[in-house]
Design goal:
The complex is a heterodimer.
Chain A: E1 4-6, E2 9-12, E3 17-24, E4 36-40, E5 47-51, E6 55-56, E7 64-69, E8 72-78, E9 86-94, E10 97-100, E11 104-108
Parallel strand pairs in A: 2-11
Antiparallel strand pairs in A: 1-3, 3-8, 4-5, 4-9, 5-6, 7-8, 9-10, 9-11
Chain B: E1 3-7, E2 10-12, E3 18-25, E4 34-39, E5 45-51, E6 58-60, E7 68-73, E8 78-83, E9 92-97, E10 110-114
Parallel strand pairs in B: 2-10
Antiparallel strand pairs in B: 1-3, 3-8, 4-5, 4-9, 5-6, 7-8, 9-10
Classes of the chains: A mainly beta, B mainly beta.
Chain lengths: 109, 116
């Protein structure tokens, strides 16, 4: 089964910009992987932020954006807020199977 | 309003069985493939299984293959996960989700603890 990789942890200053990435052991992440990004805070269920590379849910703050960057899926947070401190998970599609990345713990400090 | 509610979790001894349910509302359940995802304490999200719209196709993560069975009842808008021969490392919060190319509805999860 494919392995999806994320940075284990990142730190961003309030108001700063940070990019989280999501790579695939099978090669470059592409549109057929339909990359998702989820945010999860302690004790809560995951919440969908981004679907299909860059699609946003109605509740997704404008400061979050998704893209493909250098063979990986990327989640960019521009203008970080304290409430953005959370775990972030990417998800890639491998035909019918789904594979999650290990998650990135984002600290806003 | 979309709602996904998991139930059936609890404490079970190693080797035991448990059946999780996931009741869906607010969307046309029979139009969606459905998935189970789990999260062990302090760990990340792990995909467990999927079932297609009419239940004719399923697949499982290697870690649960042969022990877990996914099924659905479209008349009752309900997804199931039968878990047999449970092990300590199956302890997790289990979520059901749609995980389509454009839609990921999530429930709040069901806690499963495998311990003697």
């Amino acid at each position: 089964q494919a392995v999806v990789t994320q940075e284990p942890s990142l730190t961003v200053s309030p108001g700063g910009t940070v990019t989280l990435t999501c790579g695939s052991s099978t090669g470059a992440v592409a549109s057929h992987h339909y990359p998702y990004w989820f945010q999860q805070k302690p004790g809560q269920a995951p919440r969908t932020l981004i679907y299909d590379i860059s699609g946003k849910q109605s509740w997704t703050p404008a400061r979050f954006s998704g893209s493909l960057l250098g063979g990986k899926a990327a989640l960019t947070l521009s203008g970080a807020q304290p409430e953005d401190e959370a775990d972030y998970y990417c998800l890639l599609f491998y035909s019918d199977v789904r594979v999650f990345g290990g998650g990135t713990k984002l600290t806003v400090l | 309003e979309v709602q996904v509610v998991e139930s059936g979790g609890g404490l079970v001894q190693p080797g035991g069985s448990l059946r999780l349910s996931c009741a869906a509302s607010g969307f046309t359940f029979s139009d969606y493939w459905m998935h189970w995802v789990r999260q062990a304490p302090g760990k990340g999200l792990v995909w467990v299984s999927f079932i297609n719209k009419d239940g004719s196709r399923t697949d499982y993560a290697d870690s649960v293959k042969g022990r877990f069975t996914i099924s659905r009842d479209n008349a009752k808008n309900t997804l199931f996960l039968q878990m047999n021969d449970l092990r300590a490392d199956d302890s997790a919060v289990y979520y059901c989700s749609t995980l389509t190319t454009t839609t990921a509805y999530w429930g709040q999860g069901a806690q499963v603890t495998v311990s003697s």
